[in-house]
Automatic annotation (TrEMBL):
It comes from the Bacteria. Keywords: Methyltransferase, Transferase. The gene is dmdA. InterPro entries: GcvT/YgfZ/DmdA, GcvT/YgfZ_C, GcvT_C, GCVT_N, TrmE/GcvT-like. Residues 292-362 form the Aminomethyltransferase C-terminal domain. It holds the Pfam family GCV_T_C. Its EC number is 2.1.1.269. This is Dimethylsulfonioproprionate demethylase DmdA. GO terms for biological process: methylation. Residues 23-266 form the GCVT N-terminal domain. GO terms for molecular function: methyltransferase activity.
């Protein structure tokens, strides 16, 4: 493939200079910002992630800040997840939907205070939607994108590394909670979360000036732990069933189709835009849903468009994420499958760019 021409429209992150020194080999663009995708190779990065610790520049997961007396009210308007019992100090994975119940984003919402949230967004312009709702409803909330840059520390040795910088208390942070820690006199929120199933933390670094000192300190402290620069790994995330907005689902899908129906409490989520639309699908149930799929044969190419999923000559869905898994010795995949064909064990075929392949619907994701 051709190279990506750099320009102001494609934002660098405050970590990009270090990412490049670390030997990044490929980037994608996410929220109009650079996101590394490969360092050594996708497979080498994967094996290392599963046994050591990596530092990921995920600053492209921008924060949409809601601040003001109506912040929690606005947050609840954006999502069908019931947020009434969410206390400050918690992170929540929330589907964000439009007036038709279509998915606009699937961020992690960070509740800083009753009147202050950070929405850690996937790849869509949620800032514009939030500003539009805020202004249209005359809410008393300031909506903006603060200078917060997310750095993830992922892998089985993440705790050991984090303790060296932030002290033993970091080990006490529970899954999807965050606490305030200090680095070089600067306060930063650190959550137990991240886009991998290997465990780890996410550091919400405020102020671009602290980014490189933080990066350098992690590498300095983690030398004997074999700390390396990494990034969300395609193999590991498909094995773990982590969804990718824009790939596995778009605004054409409801949360129920994405398997996120369990996060929706459409009755309780008063004020949620799209509540009426979702009450209908919640009652009837979805007619298609995300499924883990196994593709037979040799390694398939990466999926950069929806591949038709066929039962004979009938189209029954699509495959949207694929890769060869070294640990499981099969092609792991994620797709959207019509209800007539979504039972585990169902045998289908997929039209890859290199021809037809046999597919089996799986019971569960691999990891
Ligand atoms: N961390 C933060 N922000 C993010 C991501 C992240 N923004 C963009 C993108 N990733 C959003 N998508 C996801 C998808 C899955 C998860 C987090 C963000 C995730 N899922 C857990 C799982 O499926 O095992 C648990 C979720 C739950 O509590 O139910 O972690 O990675 N800050």
């Amino acid at each position: 493939m051709a190279e990506l021409s750099p320009s102001r429209r494609i934002r660098r992150t405050p970590f990009s200079a270090r990412v490049e020194v670390a030997g990044v080999k490929a980037y994608t663009v996410y929220n109009r910002m650079l996101l590394p995708t490969v360092f050594e190779s996708t497979e080498a990065d994967y094996h290392h992630l599963k046994k050591a610790v990596q530092v990921w520049d995920v600053a492209c997961e921008r924060q949409v800040e809601l601040r003001g007396p109506d912040a929690s009210r606005l947050m609840q308007m954006l999502t069908p997840r019931d947020l009434r019992d969410v206390a400050p100090g918690r992170c929540v994975y929330v589907p964000i939907v439009d007036e038709t119940g279509g998915m606009l984003n699937d961020p992690v919402a960070v509740k800083l205070a009753e009147d202050r949230w950070w929405i850690s967004i996937a790849d869509s312009d949620l800032l514009l939607w939030a500003k539009g709702i805020c202004n249209g409803y005359h809410l008393d909330v300031l909506v903006d994108e603060p200078d917060v840059n997310l750095l993830a520390v992922q892998g089985p040795k993440a705790e050991d590394l984090m303790e060296r910088l932030f002290g033993a208390a970091v080990r006490e942070v529970k899954f999807f909670r965050f606490g305030e820690f200090h680095f070089q006199g600067r306060a930063m929120n650190i959550a137990r979360s991240g886009y991998s199933k290997q465990g780890g933390f996410e550091i919400y670094a405020e102020g671009a000036d602290i980014a490189m000192p933080l990066w350098d300190a992690l590498f300095e402290a983690g030398r004997d732990l074999d700390v390396r620069a990494g990034c969300p790994n395609l193999i590991e995330r498909i094995e773990g069933g982590l969804l990718s907005y824009g790939n596995d689902m778009t605004d054409n899908n409801t949360p129920h189709e994405c398997g996120l129906g369990k996060l929706c409490d459409t009755h309780a989520a008063m004020g949620c835009i799209g509540r009426d639309a979702l009450l209908r699908v919640a009652k009837e149930g979805p007619v298609q849903q995300i499924r883990p799929l196994e593709i037979a044969g040799d390694p398939v190419p990466l999926c950069d468009r929806a591949w038709p999923l066929m039962a004979g000559d009938k189209r029954v869905g699509q495959v949207t994420s694929t890769i060869w898994s070294p640990d499981f010795g099969v092609n792991v995949a994620i797709g959207m499958v019509r209800m007539t064909h979504w039972d585990p064990g169902t045998r289908l075929q997929v039209e890859t760019p290199e021809g037809l392949r046999d597919v089996t619907v799986r019971e569960s994701f691999w990891a």
